[in-house]
Structure formats: structure tokens, C-alpha cells
Design brief:
Number of helices: 17
Largest sheet: none
Strand content: under 5%
Distance between the termini: 56 Å
Number of domains: 2
Oligomer: single chain
């Protein structure tokens, strides 16, 4: 694959990731806001915490594959036999882990319902276990599709299902008055949608695998699988540890954490503000997806990596900054002006803080990806030290420090941004890769000007 073909695949991956995640996050944000108004505080808290537990557990059971697969797929795909063996082993390992963990998830659910005195709502946790299993299977299937750069096939299917599922849930929100019944309907709808996605995507996968087998069999090569397999396992383990440490400040863990320490009301407000902030950050992150690691990995294993890497890295950061224009310039003022939840000053402060921190992290993400692709584990460990130190210090203080949620979030995210700045310094000194200040500054300035223009125009049109 030459450099032009590589950039073409990168651009196509960005496009289909953007289409899918924009649809998915927009619909989930609308559903979350409607459910916040329709459900009781307890039912909303149960629904939010079950979802957080599901996706937090799936994150922990990822075993670093999300980062290690894009790194090693370009090498394994050099041979037909090694490629199939590699994919089968990864899928089998994840599927086995998922099945073994499902009973544990069920036992924990039973313990939680007894401890919180909500045994009458145990059925919601049973449904949550089914959703956990089905979402885990979808994650395995997505793993295969994205390993072959088949974002178009998979994301188009999931986009259709997300729209249909969300419309059904919104319909039941308006016609169902009983809070508990509404939550039950939501879980059942999610499970049915996941099962349909699994069946259709497996059928599509068989066809796609048959075509790729014919395509590469004529020029396949024999590669040494043993040493490459060991390197993949070690890299996955390091990435898994990294993900688990970072998950301690991710939204799913923080939702559970704040519910326990501050109660459901403040935790629900945090979820509301955080989901709105993630509407910006996650659209960018999910648009990039694993394409950044794939792009850098293909260049890293090429014989011209020193020539292509600086140019590819600069293009990657420019691509991320270009995504800021429609999000900050258009979506941000519309969300602020027309969303009534921001009349609550506490929610607005949380939203503004989280949005700024998320966007700064997003523009600096490629530096972490570069060190991961180059497998500079010690440099990654040094970079994470401010963040790890911050979490350690928070654990040493008395629990009363957690009562100020804004102070806590500021403390955590400043340390995370500090880690990314260390990565920026390291990559500049070691690889001579300079942050493209001029193009990024121009893009951000254009975004802010567009944002202010639209905001004041809205004030004039809708005073």
C-alpha cells in the first residue's frame, strides 16, 4: 500500500466514523435529556448506573486490543494463514472472557440490589446482564470489521439500527407514564436492536471475509508468527494497564463514583452535563477512531517512516483541528442557546469545564498514539506520572475533598492535560515532530469567530 492509498483509507475511515458517531451521540443525548425529565430520580440513576457498569466492564475486558490491533494488523495481514489465525485467536479469547464474566456481572447485580434495598427492580439488572453480553459480542464483531478497514459496511448498518432504536424509545417516552415500565422497555429495545445487529453483521462478515481471502491469496507471504504474537501480547498488556488506569477518570467510573459519594442527584447532573460535553469531544474522538493508530502504524513499518511520519503526524493534527469548526462554531452556540438545562448554573459550569478540558486533550491525543505505535513504554510511563500522582494524592486525602465536584474534576483534568504536554515535549525532542501551531491557531480562531457570530445572531433573532 503506497502513501496515497493509505491517506485515502484514512480519509474514508474518518468519514464513516463521523457519520456513525454523529448519529449515535446525537440520538443518545436527546434520549438522555428526555429520560431525565420523564423518569424518577431513582429510576434514572439505576438506568444510568447500569449502562455505566456495562460499558466500564467492557472497557476493562478490552485487554488493550483497541490499541494493539490497529498496531499489529498491518503486519499480520501480510499472510493469509497468519491473518486468519490471529483474528480467530483474538475473537475466541474475547468471547470466552465475556461468557465467563457474565455470571459475575449477575452476582454483583444481585448484591447491589440487596445493598441498595431495590430488590423489587432486580429485573432491570437481569436485562442489563443480557445487554452486557450482546454489547460485548458487537464489540468483538466491530473489532473484526475495523481491523480490515470495513467501517463503511459496519457503520452504515449500525447507523440505521441506532436511528430506528432511538425513535422507538422516544415514542415510548411520550406514551408511557410509569417510570419503571419505561426503563424496562428501553432495555428490551436495546437488547433486540443488539441481537439484530449481531445477526446481520455476521452474515455480512462471511461475505467480506470470502472476498478478502481471494484478494490476498495470490500475493500472500509467510511471516514469523511466534515472535510477532509475543510482541502483540506484550503490547496489549501494556495498553490494557494504560486503559484501566485512565478509566478511573472516565465518565462511566465517575458516574458510579459520584453516585456513591455525593448521591444520585449530583451524579445525575454530572451525567447530564458530561453527556452534553461529550457531544463535542466524542464526535471528534470517534471520528478519528482507530484510524490514527492505523495510519501511524502503516507508516512505522514502512521503509520510509522517517520521511513520512512528520508529514502524516501534522496531517493528523490538522484533521482533528478541522473538526473543531462545525462543533465549536455551530453546534456549541446552538446547544447553549436552545437547551434549557443550561439555565442551571451548576450544570453549565460543569459543561463548560468538561468541554474545554476534553477539547484540549483531543488535540494532543496524537502524541500519545505516536509513543504507543513506537512502543516507547517507559516514555509513556513517565508521561502518565502527573496523572497517577494526582489519583494517589486524592486517595490519601479525607473523603470530604470530594464534596466539591468542580474542584475535583479540575484537579483531575489538569493532571491529564499535563501528561499530554509531557508527551508533546518528548516527541519533539526525540523525533523532531513540532506541533503545527499556525494551522491549528487559524482553525481555532475561525471556530471561535463563527461561534460568536452565530450566538449573537441567535440573540437578535430569538431575544
Amino acid at each position: 500500500m503506497n502513501i496515497n492509498q493509505l491517506y485515502k483509507k484514512f480519509t474514508q475511515g474518518l468519514k464513516w466514523n463521523a457519520i456513525f458517531y454523529t448519529i449515535r451521540k446525537s440520538m443518545s443525548t436527546i434520549v438522555t435529556i428526555l429520560l431525565f425529565k420523564a423518569l424518577s430520580t431513582q429510576d434514572f440513576s439505576i438506568w444510568a448506573n447500569i449502562y455505566s457498569a456495562i460499558f466500564l466492564t467492557l472497557l476493562w475486558l478490552d485487554f488493550g486490543f483497541k490499541k494493539s490491533l490497529p498496531r499489529y494488523c498491518p503486519q499480520f495481514i501480510l499472510g493469509t494463514k497468519s491473518m486468519y489465525t490471529f483474528i480467530k485467536r483474538v475473537v475466541l479469547f474475547q468471547a470466552t472472557t465475556l461468557i465467563l464474566f457474565t455470571p459475575i456481572f449477575l452476582l454483583v447485580s444481585q448484591y447491589v440490589t440487596r445493598a441498595c434495598n431495590i430488590t423489587d427492580k432486580i429485573n432491570l439488572f437481569y436485562l442489563g446482564c443480557l445487554l452486557f453480553l450482546s454489547e460485548g459480542v458487537i464489540a468483538v464483531i466491530r473489532l473484526i470489521y475495523h481491523s480490515y478497514f470495513w467501517q463503511k459496511q459496519f457503520n452504515s448498518l449500525m447507523s440505521i439500527l441506532v436511528i430506528l432504536k432511538s425513535l422507538i424509545i422516544i415514542f415510548f417516552i411520550f406514551v408511557t407514564s410509569h417510570s419503571f415500565s419505561l426503563v424496562t422497555i428501553i432495555f428490551i429495545t436495546e437488547i433486540i436492536s443488539a441481537l439484530i445487529a449481531i445477526v446481520i453483521s455476521i452474515i455480512m462478515l462471511k461475505v467480506s471475509l470470502g472476498s478478502v481471502k481471494e484478494e490476498i491469496s495470490s500475493h500472500s507471504k509467510t511471516i514469523t508468527q511466534k515472535n510477532l504474537g509475543k510482541a502483540f501480547v506484550f503490547h496489549s498488556a501494556i495498553m490494557w494497564i494504560n486503559n484501566n488506569v485512565k478509566s478511573l477518570s472516565e465518565r462511566n467510573f465517575m458516574m458510579l463514583f459520584f453516585t456513591h459519594l455525593l448521591g444520585p442527584l449530583q451524579a445525575n447532573l454530572f451525567k447530564l452535563a458530561n453527556d452534553c460535553a461529550l457531544l463535542f469531544q466524542r464526535i471528534i474522538v470517534k471520528t478519528i477512531g482507530t484510524t490514527d493508530t492505523s495510519l501511524l502504524s502503516h507508516i512505522e513499518i514502512s521503509h520510509k517512516n522517517k520521511t513520512y511520519m512528520p508529514h502524516a503526524f501534522e496531517n493528523l493534527i490538522k484533521s482533528i483541528s478541522f473538526l473543531f469548526v462545525p462543533l465549536i462554531g455551530i453546534l456549541f452556540p446552538l446547544l447553549i442557546y436552545f437547551n434549557n438545562i443550561f439555565k442551571n448554573q451548576f450544570v453549565f459550569m460543569l459543561f463548560f469545564l468538561l468541554t474545554i478540558c476534553y477539547l484540549i486533550e483531543t488535540i494532543l491525543h496524537p502524541y500519545e498514539r505516536l509513543l504507543e505505535v513506537k512502543r516507547k513504554y517507559m516514555l509513556l510511563f513517565i508521561s502518565y506520572s502527573p496523572y497517577v500522582l494526582t489519583l494517589t494524592l486524592l486517595l490519601l486525602f479525607h473523603a470530604t475533598i470530594y464534596k466539591n465536584i468542580i474542584f475535583l474534576l479540575t484537579f483531575i483534568y489538569v493532571s491529564r492535560i499535563g501528561s499530554y504536554l509531557i508527551m508533546l515535549y518528548i516527541t519533539r525532542k526525540k523525533y523532531g515532530i513540532v506541533f503545527p501551531i499556525k494551522p491549528v491557531s487559524k482553525t481555532l480562531t475561525a471556530s471561535l469567530l463563527l461561534c460568536l457570530t452565530i450566538y449573537f445572531a441567535l440573540k437578535m433573532l430569538y431575544p
